[in-house]
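S.,

Sequence below, as promised.
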Amino acid sequence: MPSYVGGISLWAAALVMVSAPKTFAVWMRLTALVAAGLFIVSAGMILRGTPLLPTSAPLPAAGYPFLVLTFVGWIWTLVRTER
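The prediction came back faster than expected:
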């Protein structure tokens, strides 16, 4: 579990930092913030002793769809700007 907590904490920090610039659309930044928030809450719950797995519902599994939407948005932005 410690490696999972470290991983989702780094994901949360990275999502906030990478999505902060205004080069990304608002919906992408919001999905990144939602995912980061869900991951931080999950990490906090694990650190407090709640036995959560990556597939546990509703947390942390609820953060992954928002993470994927953020990835899709980033890819969409990069492909769109190259044209």
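The radius of gyration is 14 Å.

Coffee later?
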